[in-house]
Design goal:
Elements (H helix, E strand, L loop, with lengths): L5 H19 L1 H7 L3 H16 L12 H23 L11 H29 L4 H17 L10 H25 L1 H18 L1
Helix pairs in contact: 1-3, 1-5, 3-5, 4-7, 4-8, 5-6, 5-8, 6-7, 7-8
Length: about 200
């Protein structure tokens, strides 16, 4: 049996660490402070970037195509919000709260992209997943992170949580394509524009 390469072992350990933080110790971390999970996630992303060698797929040279995709994703955010309203879903966001708006428009897109198209992406690159596999597995993880509250929220919010899981899967695929071809900054921009479009309709 071929001996595992050192970066592969590190990638597996970092992936296990992520699962432990998110699914085993999440309640204990949240008990410290409502901001503690974000700090832990940022520390984890930093650890991934520090310990794993940078593996990058070739980036596209032009900016017109990624900016056009970002514009389409912005329209997608508007369409997602309009669709939720048309279906009579209750959206559990308080748009009057400055903290909610700050998280929705700035912190969320940057932090989530650092986690899913940054840290996890680098782990799956190190584990030699191909481009398509990495795009889809990171998109599925991203969608699942929005679905996990389904059973914890009031029943009136559950249709929206399921709907959110579906549109975040699609968003995650597009952000992954941008990440793989044009870099993480374009994935962040697309995510930010989607959320801005969603918030704009309110």
């Amino acid at each position: 049996m071929k001996k595992l390469r050192h970066p592969v072992v590190l990638a597996i350990l970092l992936l296990v660490l992520y699962v432990l933080f998110e699914f085993v110790f999440s309640s204990s971390i949240e008990a410290i402070s409502s901001y503690a999970p974000y700090v832990v996630e940022l520390l984890w992303v930093g650890l991934v970037f520090y310990t794993l060698k940078k593996v990058e797929w070739k980036k596209g040279s032009g900016m017109v195509k990624p900016l056009a995709i970002c514009a389409g994703i912005f329209a997608g955010g508007i369409a997602a919000d309009l669709g939720a309203h048309k279906m009579g879903m209750i959206i559990p966001f308080n748009y009057e709260s400055k903290e909610v708006v700050l998280f929705l428009l700035i912190i969320g897109p940057i932090l989530e992209e650092l986690i899913f198209r940054g840290g996890l992406w680098r782990i799956f690159e190190t584990l030699r997943f191909n481009y398509v596999g990495t795009v889809f597995i990171c998109a599925i993880a991203f969608a699942c992170s929005h679905l996990y509250l389904y059973n914890a929220v009031p029943e009136s919010y559950q249709p929206f949580i399921a709907y959110q899981g579906a549109y975040t899967l699609i968003l995650g695929i597009f952000c992954g394509v941008l990440r793989g071809n044009n870099g993480l900054r374009f994935a962040m921009l697309a995510h930010l524009l989607f959320n801005f479009g969603f918030w704009l309709v309110r």
